[in-house]
Amino acid sequence: MIYKSWSDRLAPHQVRSRVFGTRWRGLDPDQVYAYLGEVADEIARLEREATTSRAELVRVRQGLRQWKERHVGCRFTDPWPPVNNRGHR
């Protein structure tokens, strides 16, 4: 996937404001602009979703950082003794 910088990404207003030339026997402009409106709505929805996901990522990273700070000296100890080759403890 190619990641574009924020300034290179297509914004909903760019889709809505796009103007096409006309030709004899061309596409129906009403259908084209209706579809572009749907595309712009989808871009806007995806941008909102990405913003929400980034905020959640920040929250999870902060929680992990706090957990690590509280457990910096902790060591895991297995509560069960090791199992020998015969399946007995």
Could you characterize what this model shows?
This protein has a domain at 9-18 and 26-70. Helices cover 54% and strands 0% of the residues. It contains 2 helices and no strands. The two termini are 51 Å apart. The relative contact order is 0.07. InterPro entries: DivIVA_domain (IPR019933), DivIVA_fam (IPR007793). It holds the Pfam family DivIVA.
Q: What's the Cα radius of gyration?
A: 27 Å
Average per-residue pLDDT, rounded, comes to 85
Span of the ends, CA to CA: 51 Å
DSSP helical segment count: 2
Helix content: 40-55%
- What sort of overall outline do the alpha carbons produce when their principal axes are compared? elongated
Number of strands: 0
Structural class: mainly alpha
Strand content: under 5%
**Major sheet: size, sense and barrel closure?**
none
Output the helix-strand order. Answer: HH
InterPro entries: DivIVA_domain, DivIVA_fam
Subcellular location: Cytoplasm
Keywords: Cell cycle, Cell division, Coiled coil, Cytoplasm
Protein name: Cell wall synthesis protein Wag31
List the SSEs and their pairings.
Layout: H1 12-17, H2 29-70
Supply database-style keywords.
DivIVA_fam, cell division, 2 helices, Cell wall synthesis protein Wag31, 89 residues
What's this entry about, in short?
Helix content is 54%, strand content 0%.
